[in-house]
Each structure stands twice: as structure tokens, then as C-alpha cells.
């Protein structure tokens, strides 16, 4: 397994390097000049204060969403479970958009936006717990109630747009997911959160493995299934809220990357959870680099203005196609 981790880490470094040279506003030659000690003050600012933190945030958010997805799929025994099933993703989007519309937060204050998004994500999870009631330990009921909660929160986000139509740009950015404009403050807020909750998820690898085998097996092994599932869902909620607070709702990352991680690293969650973190980091960073390359190409098109392609648009398109493949190949798969 070690060579696979090394290969993925090297791939993550390559993707981050491509992302550093892919963006607009600075040529690849200018990047090499700055790395070699040259370049002017503007080029230094673009590389070290904009592109580097953006790459790091993409890596961190991808890792959070992938681990959250694998935890959810294991705890709920549902291969099509994703962060959206907890209501955290739409809740975080609603929190960020509502705070921006009320003037409490703005894009010039990353800390306020992150805190608002985290509060919204936790509120979405709390609403799920409230609706699930006594059946919150049941995987099927949790998934169904999660879909209902997501629909309600999405409707509330649409209501904010109706009240404050000027927030359309903010709504779109949070709903689609983007790393545009991410700075060091976003990274400094994301990495401690990701490290703490990622470690907590890894410590739950043993109980999660038993939960994947079914509640009867878990109970026979002496595991309190409901308590373990609650702790696992808490980790998934926290990881998803942190990622969404940093980059918005990146579609399908938490749903499909766990399948890749299990295929590459096996079913042992002590190995596949770190593998999922690396895989998610590679996927999101690579998608962001590709989005920047497409945006650079669009810049050469007449009348394109400053049209940019958000990373969430690429993950959604590719994820939808891969989801169709997964569903067709495993129509009745269960853990």
C-alpha cells in the first residue's frame, strides 16, 4: 500500500504545481521567474498570496469531502450516500448566503463567512436529527430525512435570493463551488479543522468497519451501533461543513471519491480513509487546475470578458457521468 500512497502524494504535488502555473493574470514563464527569485511585486503577490493558498485550499477541501463521504457510506451502509444526505452542504450554503445578504459577512471577511457557513451546516445537521427523532440510528430513515432536509434548506436559499436578488453571484458561487479568491486566511481556518476531524474519523475506522457489516454483526461484537453511528455522522458533518465553508458545495466529490479509494486501497478503513483523503485532494486540485486552464483558453475568445469556469462545474459534470456508470454497474449493491 505504501507505493500507492507515495504515487498519490506525488500526483497531488504535480496537480498543485500545474495549478500554480495554470491561472490567468500571470504567464507560466512569470511563475518560473518568481520561483527563481525574480519577478516584480505584482507577480510575487499573485503567486504567493493568491495561487498558492488557492491550491492548498483545493487540496484540503477535497480531502475533507472524500473522508466525509467514505464515513457516511460506511455508517449508513449505502454506496450512494454523500455529504448532501446529512443536510450539511445546503445548510452551509444557506448560512453563508444569508449572512452575506444580511451584511454580517462578506467576501472581504473570510472568517465571518466561514463561521456563518459552519453555523449553517451544523443547523442543517441539527434539523436532520430533529426530524429523524427516535429513528436517527436507522440508516434508511437517516438518508430519507437527509434528502428532505436538503430540499427544505435549498428552498430557503432560493427565498434569500428572492428577498436579496443582488446576492445572485454569491448564491451561485456557493451552490456551484469555487476556489476563486481564496487566500491564506481560508487555509489557516481549514487545515486545523480538517486535521482534527480527519483524525477523529480515522480513530473510528474499527467501529465503521463493523457498521459496514450490519448492526447485528456490530452488536454481536459488542459495539453500541447507534452511538458509533452518531459519532461517525458527527465527524462527517464537521468535515463537510469545513469544506463547504471554504469552497462551497462541490458536487459529487464526497459521493464518488470513496468508491475510488476503496477500489485502490481496499475495504480496510484504517488504510482507505487516509487513501480517500489523498484521492479527494488530487481530484479537486486536478479539477481546479483544469478549470483554470479552460478559463485561460476562454480568455482568448472575443467578447468572453472575464468568464471563469468554477471547479464545482467540472466536478458536477464529471461526477454525474461517473455516477451513471456506478449505478448501472452496481444497481443492487449494499455494504
Descriptive account of the structure:
This protein has 335 residues and is mainly alpha-helical. It has 14 helices and no strands. Helix 3 runs antiparallel to helix 11. The protein is globular. The model has no long low-confidence stretch (mean pLDDT 84).
Helix percentage: over 70%
Poorly predicted regions are none
Please give the number of β-strands: 0
Helix-strand pattern: HHHHHHHHHHHHHH
Share of β-strand residues: under 5%
Count of separate DSSP helical elements: 14
Mean pLDDT across every amino acid position: 84
Apparent shape: globular
Largest sheet, described in full?
none
Structural class: mainly alpha
- CA radius of gyration is 20 Å
- Give the CA-CA distance, first to last residue: 23 Å
Short account of what is shown:
This protein is mainly alpha-helical. Helices cover 76% and strands 0% of the residues.
From the structure above, extract its key features.
335 residues; mainly alpha; 14 helices
Q: What is the topological layout?
A:
Elements: H1 2-22, H2 28-35, H3 41-76, H4 88-101, H5 110-132, H6 139-163, H7 168-176, H8 184-203, H9 205-212, H10 215-220, H11 225-247, H12 253-265, H13 269-299, H14 311-329
Helix pairs in contact: 1-3, 1-13, 3-8, 3-9, 3-11, 3-12, 3-13, 4-5, 4-6, 4-7, 4-11, 5-6, 5-11, 8-11, 12-13, 13-14
Amino acid at each position: 500500500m505504501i507505493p500507492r500512497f507515495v504515487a498519490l502524494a506525488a500526483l497531488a504535488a504535480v496537480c498543485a504545481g500545474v495549478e500554480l502555473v495554470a491561472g490567468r493574470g500571470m504567464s507560466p514563464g512569470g511563475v518560473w521567474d518568481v520561483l527563481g527569485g525574480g519577478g516584480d511585486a505584482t507577480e510575487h503577490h499573485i503567486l504567493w498570496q493568491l495561487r498558492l493558498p488557492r491550491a492548498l485550499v483545493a487540496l484540503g477541501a477535497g480531502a475533507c469531502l472524500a473522508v466525509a463521504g467514505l464515513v457516511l457510506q460506511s455508517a449508513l451502509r449505502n454506496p450512494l450516500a454523500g455529504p448532501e444526505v446529512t443536510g450539511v452542504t445546503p445548510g452551509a450554503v444557506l448560512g453563508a448566503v444569508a449572512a452575506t445578504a444580511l451584511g454580517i459577512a462578506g467576501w472581504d471577511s473570510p472568517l465571518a463567512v466561514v463561521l456563518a457557513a459552519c453555523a449553517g451546516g451544523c443547523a442543517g445537521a441539527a434539523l436532520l436529527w430533529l426530524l429523524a427523532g427516535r429513528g436517527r440510528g436507522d440508516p434508511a430513515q437517516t438518508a430519507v430525512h437527509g434528502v428532505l432536509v436538503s430540499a427544505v434548506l435549498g428552498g430557503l436559499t432560493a427565498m434569500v435570493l428572492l428577498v436579496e436578488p443582488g446576492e445572485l453571484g454569491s448564491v451561485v458561487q456557493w451552490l456551484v463551488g469555487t476556489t476563486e479568491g481564496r487566500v491564506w486566511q481560508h487555509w489557516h481556518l481549514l487545515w486545523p479543522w480538517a486535521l482534527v476531524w480527519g483524525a477523529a474519523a480515522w480513530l473510528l475506522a474499527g467501529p465503521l468497519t463493523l457498521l459496514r457489516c450490519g448492526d447485528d454483526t456490530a452488536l454481536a461484537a459488542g459495539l453500541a451501533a447507534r452511538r458509533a453511528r452518531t459519532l461517525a455522522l458527527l465527524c462527517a458533518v464537521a468535515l463537510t461543513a469545513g469544506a463547504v465553508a471554504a469552497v462551497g458545495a462541490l458536487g459529487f466529490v464526497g459521493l464518488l471519491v470513496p468508491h475510488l479509494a476503496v477500489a485502490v486501497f481496499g475495504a480496510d478503513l484504517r488504510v482507505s480513509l487516509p487513501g480517500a483523503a489523498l484521492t479527494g485532494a488530487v481530484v479537486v486540485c486536478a479539477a481546479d487546475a483544469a478549470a483554470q486552464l479552460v478559463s485561460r483558453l476562454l480568455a482568448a475568445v472575443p467578447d468572453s470578458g472575464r468568464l471563469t469556469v468554477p471547479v464545482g462545474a467540472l466536478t458536477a459534470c464529471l461526477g454525474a457521468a461517473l455516477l451513471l456508470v456506478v449505478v448501472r454497474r452496481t444497481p443492487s449493491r449494499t455494504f
